[in-house]
Amino acid sequence: MVCTRPDIATIVGVVSRFMSNPGRKHWEAVKWLLHYLKGTSKIALCFSKNDVILEGYSDADLGGCLDTRKNTTRFVFTVGGTLVSWISQLQKSVAFSTIEVEYMAILEAGKEMI
Fold it and tell me: What pLDDT, in 10s, does the model give residues 64-78?
């Protein structure tokens, strides 16, 4: 069985940035995450035979990482309303405008869609 947990992708991505030198707040976030996972262990993704339509959404933030000022790209794809692909990651380069950041996110989402 393969299980996916897109609901924790963002927090795992943020906390993992501090793995080499975690602080108290990071450990508190990990503890909260483990508690959350314990309470949501029976969540499952289900596919429907009807309405098998591919939908995608992308988003980005400008300077989301306070240390490097790199931007975060996020996108999701669903088939029939069920999440099949997602990402939340720092962009490789620093952008200086909102439109540039959003364009970079759309390009990454387009590559995933193809």
Answer: 777 888 888 889 998
- The answer to whether residues 54 and 79 touch, using CB atoms and an 8 Å cutoff, is yes
pTM for the full predicted model: 0.56
Q: How many residues does the chain have?
A: 114
Q: Which residues contact 59 (CB under 8 A, 6 or more apart)?
A: 74, 75, 102, 105
Rounded to whole angstroms, how far apart are CA atoms 11 and 9?
A: 6
In angstroms, the first-to-last Cα distance of the chain is 26
- b or e along 65-98 (b: 16 or more beta carbons within 10 Å of the residue's beta carbon)? eeeeebbbbbbbbbeeeeeebbbbeebeeebeee
C-alpha to C-alpha distances, 42 to 4, 33, 82, 86, 103, nearest whole angstrom: 12, 15, 16, 20, 37
